[in-house]
Specification:
The chain folds into two domains: about 140 residues, 60s Ribosomal Protein L30, Chain: A, CATH 3.30.1330.10; about 170 residues, Phosphoribosyl-aminoimidazole Synthetase, Chain A, domain 2 (Alpha-Beta Complex). The chain is built from ten helices and 13 strands. The strands form three sheets. It has a seven-stranded mixed beta sheet, sandwiched between helices. Strands 3-6-4-5 form a four-stranded mixed beta sheet. Strands 1-2 form a two-stranded antiparallel ribbon. Strand 12 and strand 13 form a beta hairpin. Helix 2 runs parallel beside helix 3, helix 4 packs across helix 5 and helix 4 crosses helix 8. It is globular and about 65 Å long. The protein binds adenosine-5'-diphosphate and magnesium ion. The site of adenosine-5'-diphosphate has 13 residues, from helix 1, strand 4 and strand 5.
Length: about 350
């Protein structure tokens, strides 16, 4: 494959090369790349801003993550945060630290992924910053979005006796990560052998190409429901539930048999000798939505495609518990997914 050194284009040349094909599509993007700052116009809307920092070796491993996927995922995790506020993502900025190891072609791949995310979610790239780096690749993406006054949803506003809902299924991205890590070890040093992911495509995709649940936000809008509290599940259901409970000053009861788990996640957990409920509770990077709605909406939410009612909030004094299949109450712990790696 061709390799063009970034130094042949220089910083300005590289930025132009990577960004010239991006066009602005949102009316709130008045001016994008090319000046000292972008200009946005949100009129009467509220402005939501979120940012993430991703470091090579800490947050991603380029031995099994293709740069195009990395670009897509870096944008999606920020877009997901705007969705989790019941907002609409509109703009991103992309800041890069790039070492000499990377070529112009590498950066083209990264931006192809970013571009795919921009097109898929209707987001404009309006700026960024670029710097040489001594240590691999660093990506920081900021996403800006709009929220309607009175309809932005925070974590601290759940009420006792709300229903607790989640979208999609949980634990798959973590199983995908463990599978990729395992294959990396097995095949290290022997490039002639290709890992076989047959029958495991879903969990790999959940790890490498997650999606933000903008579709769920749109479904909620269609049925005119504003959740009482909401967040996206990036660090595991258990930890996120505890955030909502603590910040809202409520307790919760969630039922093990209601936690949505895909078949491939269950098979993989068994292969790794892990309890699949533990995986679903503590695995990270699912980017599904966790939200609460009033109990009076039970009939509606029991039948919404892609959404599962997993339990309810309680008075804070009752604590936060998982009810197991055999009826035991287990206090939820914020394990987070990092601690699972031991
Ligand atoms: P400044 O000197 O003001 O930091 P730059 O030369 O870094 O400006 O950037 C010029 C323009 O290109 C700005 O609009 C900036 O937002 C944009 N830009 C810089 N780096 C990137 C990047 N990695 N991705 C997208 N836009 C970028
Ligand atoms: Mg700059």
């Amino acid at each position: 494959m061709q390799r063009t050194e970034i130094s042949t284009l220089g910083e300005f040349g590289l930025i132009k090369h990577l960004t010239q094909s991006f066009e602005l599509k949102n009316s709130s993007s008045l001016k994008g790349i090319g000046d000292d700052a972008a200009i946005l116009d949100y009129k009467e809307k509220q402005v939501l801003v979120t940012t993430d920092l991703l470091l090579e070796g800490v947050h991603f491993d380029l031995t099994y993550v293709p740069l195009k996927h990395l670009g897509y995922k870096s944008a999606v995790v920020n877009i997901s945060d705007i969705c989790a506020m019941n907002g609409k993502p509109k703009q991103i900025t992309v800041s890069l630290g790039v070492s000499k190891r990377f070529s112009v072609e590498d950066m083209e791949e990264l931006y192809a992924g970013i571009r795919l995310a921009c097109d898929h979610y209707g987001v404009d790239l309006v700026g960024g910053d670029t710097s040489a780096s001594m240590t691999g690749l660093t990506i920081s993406i900021t996403c800006i979005g709009e929220g309607e006054k009175g309809k932005v949803v925070c974590r601290n506003t759940a009420q006792p006796n709300d229903l607790i809902c989640v979208s999609g299924d949980l634990g798959a991205a973590y199983m995908g990560l463990l599978l990729l890590e395992r294959e990396k070890k097995i095949f290290a040093g022997d490039n002639s052998i290709q890992p076989d992911f047959a029958g495991k495509e879903y969990i790999i995709e959940r790890q490498l190409k997650p999606e933000a649940r903008q579709d769920i936000i749109e479904s909620l809008e269609r049925i005119n429901v504003v959740p009482t509290a909401m967040m996206d599940i990036s660090d595991g259901l258990s930890s996120e539930l505890l955030h909502i409970c603590k910040q809202s000053n409520v307790g919760c009861r969630v039922y093990e048999d209601r936690i949505p788990i895909d078949y491939q996640t269950a098979v993989m957990a068994e292969e790794f000798n892990m309890n699949v409920t533990t995986v679903a509770l503590n695995g990270g990077e699912d980017y599904e939505l966790l939200f609460t709605v009033p109990l009076s909406m039970n009939d509606v939410f029991q039948n919404l495609p892609g959404i599962k009612v997993i339990g309810h909030t309680t008075d804070a004094s009752l604590g936060s518990c998982l009810i197991t299949r055999d009826g035991q109450e287990i206090t939820l712990k914020a394990q987070g997914w990092n601690s699972l790696e031991k």
